Amino acid sequence: MLHKQNLVRSITTLLVILATLGGIYALWLRYQVAPVTRDGKVRADMVPIAADVSGLVTEVRVHDNQVVKKGDVLFTIDQPRYRLALEQAEANVASQKVALAQAIREDRRNRAMPEVIATEVIEQGRARVETLRASIGQAVAARDLAQFNLERTLVRAPVGGTASNMTLQPGVYLTAGKPAFALVYDASLRVEGYFEETKLPDIRVGDRASVYLMGIADEVEGHVQSIAGGVEDRERAGADGQLANVNPSFTWVRLAQRIPVRIAIDKIPRNVRMIPGQTVTVIVHPRKDGREIHRSLPW
């Protein structure tokens, strides 16, 4: 009887040890080998919205977090001032044309009377005609620029997206090129998964990927679009063209570098909303393409 009890205890202990080892191995595969990362972010390109001309903001047509389409007017810059500049440029063109017409008439009259008009005066008349023609070209260019500036007083959305950090109000003076707010380019919405370098051998461009937002169980479907071509080497400093400055210290704890992997989104569940900056878990499902991976211990 005692022998039987000892045998049962031994078998139970062995099964517990095997189960523990199996669990440790499964965890090692999950977190060290399998192409899974909880370090992922929803990302999108940000387009700074800036005026091409300087002036007072006279009208704002969007509000914070509003969805806009490409070409929608976002705000207006001091149109009366630029309209007056266009009228002045048009008047200058008309004035130059009148002066040119008068110079052409005088030149024709002078050339019709070479016996009376000195040659020097005739040449001066011709030069004046050419100068006025060049002046008209400059005046037309100035008028076109004034027209262009007037059109640019209407600041339009360069892409479709969502207005973000929008605090612009009428009366604010904007200088050309200074961003007024940002536009989230919705078409560029994607996921960036930061995978340990030990997991990259299992990842190929085109592999199917599952994305899970933090706290949401619904799967967002996607695929691997690209893998980063490189990451910064923190152990080396120095600019290009200089000698390498390598950190002489070495730590015994070697952590795997994290490599960005871009995941293109294929399908979003109807009840899920993805916002740039959200934290996600990314699971890549390697294709059965006969790839062979020869692994070694990380040390």
TrEMBL record:
p-hydroxybenzoic acid efflux pump subunit AaeA-like beta-barrel domain segment(s): 188-285
Pfam families reported for this sequence: Beta-barrel_AAEA, HH_AAEA_pHBA
GO molecular function: transmembrane transporter activity
Domain p-hydroxybenzoic acid efflux pump subunit AaeA alpha-helical hairpin as annotated: residue spans: 80-151
The organism's place on the tree of life at top rank: Bacteria
Similarity comment text for this entry: Belongs to the membrane fusion protein (MFP) (TC 8.A.1) family.
Name of the protein: Putative FusE-MFP/HlyD family membrane fusion protein
Organism: Sphingomonas sp. NS2
Classification of source organism: Bacteria, Pseudomonadati, Pseudomonadota, Alphaproteobacteria, Sphingomonadales
